Amino acid sequence: MTSALTPPMGWNSWDCYGTTVTEAEVLANARFLAEHLLPHGWDTVVVDIDWSDPDARPHGYTQDAALVLDAHGYPQPAPGRFPSAADGTGFTALAARVHALGLRFGVHVLRGIPRRAVAAALPVPGDGGWTAADVADPTSTCPWNGHMVGLDHAHPGAQAWLDGLVAQLASWGVDYVKVDDMLAPFHADAVRAWGTAIARSGREMVLSLSPGTRLSTEHLPVLREHAQLWRVCDDLWDRWEDVHANFARLARWAPHQRPGGWADADMLPLGRIGIRAERGEDRQSRLTADEQRTLLTLWVMARSPLMMGGDLPTSDPATVALLATPAVGHVLRTGVDGRELLREPAATDLGAGRTDAGEVVVWAARAGDGTHTRYVAVFWTGAHPRTEHLALSSLVGDADARAGRWAVRDLWTGAALPDPVPTGWEPEGRLDLEVPAHGVRWLALDPTDHPAPAAPGPHHRQEPS
To answer: Residue 455 has what pLDDT?
Structure first.
């Protein structure tokens, strides 16, 4: 498989439209993505959950939904929401229109087999004579959505049914499939079965697994063998506490990132979200501008996939400009060895006996494009701005700090910054940075007058692909 050699970047309908997105809304976002963000690497459009439910509603799931199914129980797009599917060809026409824009097309699927297919004992494709009732495991259910039951992967007909589902997705032109209810708890049998079905389909499809609550790195061998993306958190919304919680998760997962296998910190709840979503009302993201930069910087430094959750045509221009920042796509695609260097509690004296407690968190990565640039992100989680002083040697290593000058650039603005200042304690230089509340300073350090930096030591070497 050559899928997802770099972390995917795109748009997903969940944060803005929940279960209710329509064909017109998908196409509007696809056109906007192609016009404004494709040049910066954003190239995937994903239709999230419940596209086969004709009665989908905001803020939850329809109980005992009358999903549109074919004769084998495979979900079909609800024609009332996706008119191009009315001829029985599924997402073929919509995928073709997305592809014509130079984009990839993706869909969401729930683990298992529809309850209604099981109740009707619909036939499994092939000559085995099995029905949906034979291959189902009614005891394996999703705790938050009742549309499906699990497949009994010990039954040979279960793989046959799943192979048929994936063959249908392939025939529609699907490039990316997000399979939900896979990781919490961890359904190793379903992960293997999906990987097998995609391999048998003959079409390259990125397999993305969700949701990822308390996902352990012990599952890496199975994940890497069968999938390309796996979530490492539950649904993330526009709350600072959600962003903050992912600092620890991404520090744990970043050393394991490699081409074709990416830990996923979830979608970006930026821009206009909540229009008809599961969580909250119609709004622009409640994250502050600094919190949004923190989120994007952390995701990029950890090489998490980037899936924009807001409705692009109606999001504020500042959000679109943020996504189009050249460093976002460039560092995500070419940065290597992203890791946390430092995470320490700190307090800022606010005067009058008041202090602001938080954490100073420092990440670093190397340029993988032959330029020998280092990328550094300095985060501050406190509620007030803070001045942070960092020795150059603590960011690039002692030998490279002594080897010569390093020029400093701000990756968010593109502006040149002052060179590191030598001090009595830090003769190679020190960076003095004003870091906003819940904010970040994202820097590129470019060696200007010395040989290429030494290769990284084994303690932080990125795993080979």
So the answer is: 54
Q: Is 7 in a helix, a strand, or coil?
A: coil
Low-confidence ranges of the chain (pLDDT < 50): 453, 456-465
State the Cα–Cα distance between residues 432 and 423, nearest whole angstrom.
12
CB contact at 8 A, 438 and 233: no
List Cα–Cα distances, 335 to 281, 455, 456, in angstroms: 37, 14, 14
- Interval 17-43: pLDDT, tens: 999 999 999 999 999 999 999 999 999
DSSP symbol at 86: T
| pLDDT for position 463 | 47
**What type of residue is 28?**
A
**Kindly report the CA angle at 68 between 67 and 70, in degrees rounded to 5?**
125
Q: Reduced to 3 states, what is the DSSP secondary structure of residue 411?
A: coil
Distance CA 101, CA 98 (A): 5
308, 358, 300: which is closest to 329 by C-alpha? Answer: 300
Question: Helices H, strands E: what count in the chain?
Answer: 14, 21
The pLDDT, as a whole number, for residue 450 is: 62
